[in-house]
Amino acid sequence: MDRNHRRRFGQNFLDDAMALAIASDLPVKSGQPILEIGPGHGALTRHLLQRTEALTAVEIDPECAELVTRTFAGRPITVINQDFMKFDLDSWCEAHPESWAAGNLPYNVATGILVRLVERIEKFSGVMAMVQYEVALRLCAQPCSSDYGSLSVFVAAHCDRKLLRKIGPEHFTPKPNVDSATVLLTPRKPIMATPPGFFEFVQACFAHKRKRLSNSLTGPWTKTQIMDAISGLGLGEHTRAEELSPEVFLDLYRSLHVSTPA
After folding, report:
1. Which H or E run includes 157?
2. What is the pLDDT of residues 50-84, one digit of tens each?
3. DSSP secondary-structure letter at 187?
4. Least confident of 8-12, 127-131, 250-254
5. pLDDT of amino acid 257
6. pLDDT above 60: residue 7
7. Packing angle of the helix pair 223-232, 246-258 (nearest 10 deg)
8. Which of 104, 228, 231, 242 registers the highest number of CB atoms within 10 A of its CB?
9. CATH 1.10.8.100: which residues of the chain?
10. What contacts 187, CB < 8 A, 6 or more positions away?
């Protein structure tokens, strides 16, 4: 297997000991299917097969897909050679209720993959993903922390979040230049009901993270309408986006959309 060829997909190879530890962290119950994203050479796959009777592995690299198919022939695994971003996730979830998704996500597309999964989190029992440590911190960040941003709000509106373990470069071949971490995402109960345009609004609020909301918000509102909405929620004029919980963002969004646009 040409590792240089594989690295163009943004994934490093996990050692067996850590793969076992990560698979053991997955709180899967008997009979629950698992969807593995990016099995690579099958390090995590080997141990996930000890946790389920139905594993589906989606792999973009045809050489890796062939290797995993050959290595685990006769085991309860279905290997699909396809880009996960084009995979029919909704149909798979419909056919596999109460499933888990797991994977050592390629660094260069991890956020896009997570967004797809989080948007459908109610169709899963949960998601366990390995990502760059800095991404894991953003996924799990709380308001008033330096890592808190629009991605944090998006994930928190859908999921309960937990950082499971930090993983050093020594557990990968080749060694990456950053630490990694696994995060566990499970459906929030209830998931926040958000109107169209809400998360775009949140992104706009964080566009100038260090500015006051009254100065950073743009759109179809006057400065007076923005200040009235902020004060109406009991917030001070110096409030910044990083201070607001998902629920307060939603209250602010609704308050502004009750206002008559300028």
Report:
1. helix 150-158
2. 999 999 999 999 999 999 999 999 999 999 999 99
3. E
4. 8-12
5. 87
6. no
7. 130
8. 104
9. 198-258
10. 121, 122, 124, 125, 126, 158, 159, 160
**Domain 3-187 architecture:** 3-Layer(aba) Sandwich (3.40)
**Residue range(s) occupied by CATH 3.40.50.150 in the chain:** 3-187
Q: How many helices (H) and strands (E) does the chain have?
A: 12, 9
Return the amino acid letter for 99.
S
- How far from the centroid of its chain's Cα atoms is residue 247's Cα? 20
HEC profile for 101-132? EEEECCHHHHHHHHHHHHHCHHHEEEEEEEEE
CATH number of 198-258: 1.10.8.100
Which of 161, 160, 169 is CA-nearest to residue 133? 169
In angstroms, rounded to a whole number, what is the distance separating the alpha carbons of residues 77 and 45?
A: 9
* Model pLDDT for residues 168-208, shown as the tens digit of each residue: 999 998 888 999 999 999 999 999 999 999 999 999 999 98
**Mean pLDDT over each residue of the chain, to the nearest integer:** 93
How is residue 201 annotated by DSSP?
H
